[in-house]
Structure formats: structure tokens, C-alpha cells
């Protein structure tokens, strides 16, 4: 049923979103894209949720990309609509105010790798396989892969992977800088949650502004990036959280941040 294709859970300020179409390797059909889009929109301004964690059901697949059986039934106009939807969704995920962690628990191909690229941080199981394989189907990555992959691992290596459609295992993905950390499959969610909770201990406004400064500053020259950083810093100065951080340091206690 469509109601079950995206599982949601909230723990200690972390929202866990789980793609749940294991019979088709958690591939993205139109219904799942719409559910994920609606959920992302609903979480965007939740002050109580500090981190978003995205994964797939089971150990076999994170997300095998587009549902090709559904794609085969689409007219060209419908394919264009699908591509616009997935591209917009992944940009929305990238620009969430909260940090987004992708827990890549298995196969992540095409749109699955692009979903991981839209996250801020990627953890992968040792069994994970990633790749932008679209050219093998006579198309190109259409949900940001041609732009985010070279920015992450460099233009030359990104061209190699996209042109060949080659898949990489977890250890090579780590060496390339495609993922931040590799861990045993049975530890993937717990280690991802541990990182999420560590992030959640920080000031939420500060983390939001740090993410903003990195994301937008990286697209500019250094001086413009420094100006973006300065403006992001100014946002933090009048907050209650900044004063709470100073008070907690002075009183040798753990701060209690409220996002104000």
C-alpha cells in the first residue's frame, strides 16, 4: 500500500525516514517521490527536529534509483515531469535547514546515489554499492548527479564514473570521498544515529547557519564566501542559544539549546 512506502520515526530530535519498497530495491516511483516530498516539507520548519536521517529498508538496497518498470510505461512528457519532481525534491533535501545524513545500507544506483549526494553526510555499510549508471541506459543523471558528484570528488573522477557507469564498493567510495564513513551493516543505523545525536547537541541555529555558509559559500569566490560566513555569524549573535552556550560553559554544565 502507498501508505507504507515511506516509514517515519522520530527519536530524540532525529527524524528517521526509511524508503520501504524492498520488493523493488526501494526504487523511486512517483508515489514514493511524492510521499518523500510531502514529508520533507512537513519536517522543514520543525524546531524540535535537529537532524534528518534517510535510509532504506533491509540490508540489500538503499535505493536502486528510478522504478524502471514504471518508467517504461511513461510518455516523454511524464518522464520530464518525473525528472523535474526528483530534481526539485533532492535540491529541497540539500537545502533543508537541518543536517541530513544518508545511511547507505546497500545498493545505491542512479537516483539512489543522487539521493545520498543531496545529503550533507553519508555513512555506508561495508556491503554498499554506489554508482551513477544512467549512461548505460542511454540517459544521464538527472537529479543533480552531474553537478554534485564532481563538487564532492572532483571533476576528473566524476567524469570517469559517470561516463563508464561503473559501480564502486564502500571502501572505494570512502577513498574517493563519496562517503564519510564505512561501518558494519548491523552497526550502520546505530552509528548514524550516534552522529545525528552528536550534531543535535549543538545549537540548531548555529548548525543551520554553518550549513548555509558552506553550501552557498562554496559556490562563490573566497571573499564572497567570507562575506556569507560573516552574515551567517551575525544571525547567531542575538540568539538566546548563544547566551545559553556561554552560561553553560561558565557553569560547567551541558547547554540546553532551544533554537531561539
Description:
There is one protein chain. This protein is an alpha/beta fold and 260 residues long. The protein has 2 domains: 199 residues, 2-enoyl-CoA Hydratase, Chain A, domain 1; 48 residues, Lyase 2-enoyl-coa Hydratase, Chain  A, domain 2 (Orthogonal Bundle). Helices cover 48% and strands 16% of the residues. A 6-stranded mixed sheet has the order 1-2-3-5-7-10, with helices on both faces. A 4-stranded mixed sheet has the order 4-6-8-9. Helix 1 packs parallel to helix 3 and helix 9 runs antiparallel to helix 10. The longest helix has 19 residues. The N and C termini lie far apart (40 Å). The mean pLDDT is 94.
